[in-house]
Specification:
47% of the residues lie in helices and 14% in strands. By secondary structure, the protein is of the alpha/beta class. Strands 1, 2, 3, 4, 5, 6, 7, 8, 9, 10 and 11 form an 11-stranded mixed β-sheet that branches. The mean pLDDT is 96. The structure holds pseudouridine-5'-monophosphate and manganese (II) ion. Pseudouridine-5'-monophosphate (PSU) binds at residues 25, 27-28, 32, 88, 105-106, 124-125, 127, 140-142, 159, 189, 260, 263, 267.
Amino acid sequence: MKEYMSYSEEVKHALVHDLPIVALETTIISHGMPYPQNREMAIEVEQIIRDHGAVPATIGFMDGKIKVGLNASELEEFATNKDVAKVSRRDIPYILSSRKIGAATVAATMIGAQLAGIQMFATGGIGGVHREGEITWDVSADLTELAQTSVAVVCAGCKSILDIGRTLEYLETAGVPVVGYQTKGFPAFYSRESGFAVQTSMESPEKAAEMLSTKWKMGLKGGAVIANPIPEADAIPYEEIEQIIVQAMHEAYQYGISGKQVTPFMLAKVKELTNGRSLEANIALVKNNAKLAAQIAVALKQNGN
Ligand code: PSU
Ligand code: MN
């Protein structure tokens, strides 16, 4: 396995000295946002993690390696290269053996993080059960990954382009804790509320770290979702974004978009229909999640994890 891993100097140093580390995904950079906002977001998010006492490890696939920690030119490559594949669990063997460039989804980032010994991961939103998933069977591999890989994901819930109720049902069946950070409701990415409740609510990073460390000490494998609502000032009201999402879904259907193209198509469409406001909200919530993930990572190390 070691032959497939490659670490940045910063991450190598952190691993040797047992410092808190927060993993970050590359799909959000290559397929989730346009250039140059994607590169700026990636750089700023890494800095927020450092400012809160942890070390960032942005994960992607390049030259037959899982890169854990990217340098500036590698990051630029993920932000600009149009041929970056979107890599989830099933795509990892091919992307490594073909030595192509691939962006890691939540699922693939969790795999890379676990292989590197990283327990915390910050992103925007997780994938889930798509609307009409009972017909299309479009259920993100992020969910099966959360069931088996022991990495906690801090996110702003998931978008209502997904069927949030069924996504939460799936996570319950799979035994994945879903924790609301200072909230009793599961957030819907652009909006602070989805109308669905979380299983449990935590008031501090320390409490969240305690729960995670208990889970893993018990030998209960798998991840957890730490759902952190978008800051009030950046939120878009649910009803407003809902209409736009429905319109974007109609267009996706008309164009025959399917499979792994669905999420990137929807993200770009929603941005267009909100005149860029959705992108601003997206950037704000990722930053907010990076801060919380760093705080939990620090607390986990203080608990001896
Ligand atoms: N949701 C977002 N932004 C994203 C993604 C999801 O709000 O960028 C990305 C993540 O990388 C996630 C992936 O893991 O899309 C899920 O894709 P799919 O539904 O094809 O599994
Ligand atoms: Mn899918």
